[in-house]
Amino acid sequence: MIELRELSVGYGRSAVARGVSMELEPGKVIALLGPNGCGKSTLLRTILCLQPKLAGEILVDGTPSERLTPRQLAQKAAYLAQSRATPNITARRMVLHGRFPYLSYPRRYRREDYEMVEKALRWADAEGIADRFMGELSGGQRQKVYLAMALAQDTQTILMDEPTTFLDVARQLEVMATARRLAREGRAVLMVLHDLCLALRWADKVAVLAEGGLLFQGTPEEAVEAEILNRVFGVRLSRVMTESGWQYYYG
Asked: Could you tell me if 65 and 39 are in contact, meaning their C-beta atoms sit under 8 angstroms apart?
């Protein structure tokens, strides 16, 4: 489990978010919400030690993150970034990159690596494009491949930065269903999302980052009742109970 204690993140000496304390709980999907520029992506990158923290602690299974090597950390947490380079390789080869933390140099893939890659391709609905080159794929197709690469890393914690970007509505729902399935397997999933209704419908918890810190943590129902999202985003959220649970909408 990853735990944040009074974490401050930003660039240089300038913090964009201060005093963030939260737990990435196994078995839970957490939606990280907030307006543009509030530090959501910066927080994810700091958790993964891709940029230095300004203050506070990041504990990974009780160990301070600075005591872990990049390889050790990559075996604990996977990252689906907001944007990535597009190398001239096949999608399947790209997904194999997710196995790097488990390989020594020179890299020699094992049977379990190939098996995990095929499983990840199925999870991400990317089997049909596995043999196509990355440069030939649409933005939505590439997003599926990047998701599969994160899943192939087979970690207990998965951090996703806007994973539904470029995807149509049906594929967005598939990504959220995949996140729920990963949580049922006992993994912790932290997702940066901009679609409030999607987040409220699928997440176990929401965390609202705004005004220089973490304003709220709780269930979707608690967030709606507290009207925190209305205040932060300047919208009016409503809900209706259906056979499949609460459905959220604007208005």
From this structure: no
Does 106 reside within a domain?
Answer: yes
- CA distance linking residue 152 with residue 70, whole number of Å: 17
Q: Specify if 236 maps to a domain.
A: no
CATH number at residue 181: 3.40.50.300
Same domain, 61 and 48: yes
Give the sheet arrangement for strand 29-33, strand by strand: 77-80, 157-161, 188-192, 29-33, 205-210, 213-218
Full domain range(s) for residue 176: 1-76+155-226
DSSP label at residue 104: P
Q: How far apart are CA 205 and CA 45, in angstroms?
A: 20
**69 and 173 belong to one structural domain:** yes
Q: Taking all residues of the chain, what is their mean pLDDT, rounded to a whole number?
A: 93
Phi, psi dihedrals of residue 108, rounded to the nearest 5°: -130, 110
- 46 in the same domain as 5: yes
Output 189 or 165, whichever has higher pLDDT. 189
Tokens of 86: 């597009």
Q: What are the tokens at 190?
A: 């932290």
Q: Model's pTM, two decimal places?
A: 0.91
Asked whether 205 and 217 are in contact (CB, 8 A), the reply is yes
Dig out the tokens for 43 from the structure. 């927080």
